[in-house]
Amino acid sequence: MTGTLVLLRHGNSEWNAKNLFTGWVDVDLDAKGEAEARRGGELLKESGVLPDVVHTSVLRRAIRTSEIALHITDRHWIPVKRSWRLNERHYGALQGKDKKQTLETYGEEQFMLWRRSYDVPPPPIEAGSEFAQFDDPRYALLPPEAKPKAECLKDVLVRALPYWYDEIVPDLRAGKTVLVAAHGNSLRAFVKHLDSISDEAISKLNIPTGIPLRYDLDDDLRPLKPGGEYLDPEAAKEAAAAVANQGR
Ligand SMILES: O=C(O)[C@@H](CO)OP(=O)(O)O
């Protein structure tokens, strides 16, 4: 039996509110994000989608979103696994930069290449930058060459897929309902993989904050319904358009 996968992007963060590129910078949810996480939990509860296990990144906006949502669903007690492989894409030298200013400085084409192209990474972050993570203890066991200086979506897919196969797939194969609480771009990587979306088409896909996306999978781990199903489809459409328009 194959279980159910639920992808949940963290709620609005303090830097989403300020319109700053975030990446691996460990910012918290703002009040709106906490409310979105509660709403995410309510949607899970109303739909009867009760996670048996949760996988999160090692960033607090995803961790807190999962805790708030699971508290609402009375599933705060389920096993938790965390990995840097579920982190947001590392935004390189753009981390901490204002999206609107970046758009104005570099123009629409370059801005969108950095934000949404499959294989163009942003410029690398420098070791001394206040927004770098080279000395962060949570990545201390990563070999230096595995610590990103910047990532494009392709890089995210390469580092996220081992986690998919090694940690998430076994839970699904065991028939569990698996919650993955992560980020706009790490979840785009999983959706690209699940729905076999082309390198070109993935640039148009945006994941809204705080709205659970449910996938029921067949025995080959292919979605029964392409694109899955947002538990609040109308809100998801509107919120995804808002993500697409950031910087404008
Ligand atoms: O700043 C970021 O880390 C991400 C997600 O908030 O931004 P974008 O949607 O522009 O890729």
Automatic annotation (TrEMBL):
EC number per UniProt: 5.4.2.11
Keywords: Gluconeogenesis, Glycolysis, Isomerase
RNA-binding found in the keyword field: no
Entry-linked Pfam families: His_Phos_1
Residues at the active site: H10, E88
GO MF annotations in UniProt: phosphoglycerate mutase activity
Catalytic activity as recorded in UniProt: (2R)-2-phosphoglycerate = (2R)-3-phosphoglycerate
Enzyme class: isomerase
Isomerase keyword on record: yes
Marked site (Transition state stabilizer) residue numbers: H183
InterPro entries xref list: His_Pase_superF_clade-1, His_PPase_superfam, Phosphogly_mut1
Biochemical pathway: Carbohydrate degradation; glycolysis; pyruvate from D-glyceraldehyde 3-phosphate: step 3/5
Binding site for substrate: 9-16, 22-23, 61, 88-91, 99, 115-116, 184-185
PANTHER family: PHOSPHOGLYCERATE MUTASE (PTHR11931)
Primary role: Catalyzes the interconversion of 2-phosphoglycerate and 3-phosphoglycerate.
Family to which this protein belongs: Belongs to the phosphoglycerate mutase family. BPG-dependent PGAM subfamily.
Official protein name in the record: 2,3-bisphosphoglycerate-dependent phosphoglycerate mutase
Species this chain originates from: Paractinoplanes lichenicola
